[in-house]
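debug: dumping io for the single-chain case to check the tokenizer round-trip. Nothing else runs in this session.
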Amino acid sequence: MTSVLSLRLAGPLQSWGASARFTRRTTESAPTKSAVIGMLAAAAGIERGDDAGLKPLAALRFAVRIDQPGTRVRDFQTAHHSASGKSMPLSERFYLADAVFVAAVEGDPTLLGRLHAALRNPVYPPFLGRRSCPPAQPVDLGLHDHTSLMEVLDEVPWQASAWYRRQHRGRTDIELTVLREARDSEAEFADTFRDQPISYAAEHRRHALRAVVSDSVRITGSSARQLPLHDPFDALKEESA
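debug: decoded output
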């Protein structure tokens, strides 16, 4: 039986780009497999050019639950050439603000045990898609033995911030979208994303297509996580009707 490692991905800003075109860098609406596997590889100390070390991580099955979708925001950035000092073209970058996700990977228990330990004592610190986007809290949610992706995503408490949950008060359950890797029998109905990592090496970074289907789970409102002593999202006030 496989094990599942679950992660909480939350921070003021996140950016999960599956593609970049010239000076325009977009973000997907949820974390990509490439980014999450890259986070785990970095925590374990696997270097960018170590394709053999990356391979077993890339083979893990991946899913992500959207607990708080966030808001897409746009930023403009300027830069100067390090040698000449000449101004570079203005770049346009997109982020997700105030989003919360639960990501999960499924596979060999021994491998996931090592990755779980690495998350708690990472060689390279995690970030949410870009180095400028640190997580608000530790990303480790736990290692779950003898289970599956959907079982874990059905059981992990709702991770949304307190201010977001207040907007849903009075509801007995919440339906959350899950984006998961398609089974062979579902390939005909799946969407495809080019975020299956093959190599992170700067000279030949490569990704393959991955089939993804949209699913859902129902979480009871009372199953929301216990808030830590400090949650930066609590500073956001609920808008008046």
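debug: round-trip ok. The CA atoms of residues 199 and 205 lie 5 Å apart.
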